[in-house]
Design a protein that fits this description.
alpha+beta, Endonuclease, Chain A, 3 domains, 8-stranded mixed sheet, 7-stranded mixed sheet, 17 strands, elongated, disordered N terminus, phosphatidyltransferase activity, PLD-like_dom
Length: 456
């Protein structure tokens, strides 16, 4: 897979560093000013005035220098606004056009999706509706923010729904760090080459900056907390969906709105131009469902369902669909996950393996992702240790790079794909999810080639 080229209208690295540095200069100017004021009363005494006068003069000069420096950095940062944006293009292969696929569905990599969506937003005339779990400012995301604001200024209906998770966490590499937490290790982050603590501070600062821009334009809102996660503030708000509608085109899948999700890990989005499905997604965005719903499109040549979890604890039609698919498997089951199978799903997979069905599980590779950290590390280690004692016929593979993909493929004929990790603890918590089930041969083949074969 390639990487997204070219900085957008403002380079987040340069723009963010200048604004962050401007804030530091301003803070230093205030400190110097306070230091200059403290000895000032002593400068009016009849005796021993020289030292207070010198101190006031030196600190006053320091305050002035730092203030002028902060203004210079401010002007330099905003001068980037006048630069023309460079097009964002992926180096990866060009995806098939919707016309080449059955009913206008095409599976895109994260880079293809982001390029496609930003381009569509720049040409949008009616609506730009986005609903994602997480947003984190970055080189690519700053281009998205600028495109959203430009569309709003053209009179387009622009809305961005985010989960409160964005307010509580900051992305550092492939990890999410709680707001207010500090990084102890202080190592360099591989992708940016920056000291982790510096990267954490920059990301927090720029994310707040971009969210403030979006709030000012009336674009961003945060969804209500749901399920049991509403009681656990810093674990997110319970909205794990990732989908968007731009005029009459929709996407749904696995990506979050962060640079790391685009270039640092495997993610996939399904591009949809079928008017029936797009209309349903418009309705879901405008009027969020309070109950689980399975939309069945009966006039499709092959079975296709849009599955919506409303976020009720212990109630997931997507998870139940996965168990039904596993139960009906005859030859082979392929499962790609960021986590690992647990509970009823693991039991069902083991049972099928005993019956002679080939079961392959593709998992997150070892690295710096949260699944390799506590408390997730405990569950993952327990799962792998149990397989060492009794493999139960399950074949474990590790993705060749960090993966955020989520999918289940049965007998090469039926596929389940979307935001749901099929991780039972989240089912118990109650999380809003969106996935599709399909038996369309072309779409199943796309998923086979782009998700299952590509991640192993």
């Amino acid at each position: 897979m390639g990487i997204v080229e070219g900085p957008p209208e403002r380079s987040t690295e340069v723009f963010g560093d200048l604004l962050y540095s401007k804030r530091d200069s301003k803070h230093r100017a205030i400190k110097y000013l306070i230091a200059a004021i403290i000895p000032l009363p002593f400068a009016f005494r009849k005796e021993h005035r020289a030292l207070p006068i010198i101190a006031t003069s030196v600190f006053g000069a320091g305050a002035l220098v730092n203030y002028l420096e902060s203004q210079e950095k401010h002007d330099a940062a905003y001068s980037l606004k006048s630069q023309k944006p460079k097009p964002v293009k992926p180096k990866s292969e060009t995806p098939k056009s919707p016309e080449q696929t059955t009913d206008g569905f095409v599976l895109q990599t994260s880079e293809e999706f982001m390029t496609d969506m930003i381009s569509s937003i720049q040409q949008a005339k009616d609506r730009v509706w986005l609903e994602f779990m997480q947003f984190e400012s970055g080189e690519i995301m700053s281009g998205l923010v600028d495109s959203l604001i430009a569309a709003k200024e053209r009179g387009v209906d622009v809305r961005l729904h985010l989960d409160p998770y964005t307010l509580d966490h900051t992305r550092v590499g492939n990890r999410d760090v709680l707001r207010g937490a500090q990084i102890v290790r202080n190592q360099k982050e591989p992708q940016s080459g920056l000291d982790e603590r510096t990267l954490l501070q920059r990301n927090r600062f720029m994310t707040r900056y971009d969210l403030d821009l979006l709030k000012k334009e009336g674009i961003v809102t945060f969804t209500e907390r749901s399920g049991r996660l509403r009681l656990l503030k810093y674990f997110g708000g319970g909205n794990h969906r990732k989908f968007s509608v731009v005029d009459d085109v929709s996407w749904l899948g696995t990506i979050n709105l962060t640079d790391g999700d685009v270039t640092g890990m495997e993610n996939f989005m399904l591009r949809i131009t079928n008017s029936q499905v797009v209309d349903v997604l418009k309705e879901i965005f405008a009027n969020p469902q309070k109950e689980n719903i399975a939309y069945q499109f009966l006039d499709f040549e092959n079975s296709f369902e849009l599955l919506i979890d409303s976020g009720k604890p212990n109630n997931s039609i997507i998870f139940e669909k996965s168990l039904e698919m596993i139960e009906n498997a005859k030859e082979k089951i392929e499962f790609v996950t960021q986590y690992w199978p647990t509970g009823r799903l693991l039991k069902a997979l083991k049972e099928k393996a005993k019956q002679g069905v080939e079961v392959e599980i593709v998992m997150e590779p070892m690295g710096d992702h949260r699944v390799w950290r506590y408390p997730f590390k405990i569950g993952r280690r327990s799962f792998l240790n149990s397989l060492e004692r009794d493999p139960a016929g399950l074949k474990i593979y590790y993705a060749d790079k960090p993966t955020h993909a989520k999918g289940l493929l049965v007998d090469g004929k039926a596929a389940l794909f979307g935001s749901h990790n099929l991780y039972e603890p989240m089912v118990k918590a109650g999380v809003k999810e969106m996935s599709i089930y399909t038996e369309d041969p072309d779409l199943v083949t796309q998923m086979q080639e782009r998700i299952f074969n590509h991640t192993k």
